[in-house]
């Protein structure tokens, strides 16, 4: 059973999705999974950057390439550390337009 502080955090997340128009529990879980995945990719890139800095070499197989995508937007914008501070509408556009385009 979830109690205390963790329950309060889960409730706040649920309320944020509900007020944003997402009320289906499966859709909420899907969106949370996307956000956790984005966060994990950024964490892995940070580990690679730290290792490269320690040994004085370039990053081996970077997750986020340097430079810009085809639309001229920096790949760095897709990292959790930058993504998390954006407005919800911007986040939606980034995932819907830039991330989906990269998958195709």
Commentary on this structure:
This protein is mostly helical. The chain has one domain. The chain is flat and about 45 Å long. The relative contact order is 0.09. The mean pLDDT is 86.
What topology does this entry show?
Layout: H1 4-19, H2 25-55, H3 80-83, H4 88-103
Class inferred from helices and paired strands? mainly alpha
Order of helices and strands: HHHH
**First-to-last CA distance:** 41 Å
Integer average pLDDT: 86
Task: Count structural domains.
Answer: 1
- How many strand units? 0
Shape: flat
- Low-confidence sequence ranges: none
Helix content: 55-70%
* Count, helices: 4
Q: Could you give a short description of this structure?
A:
It is built from 4 helices and no strands.
Keyword list:
single chain; 104 residues; mainly alpha
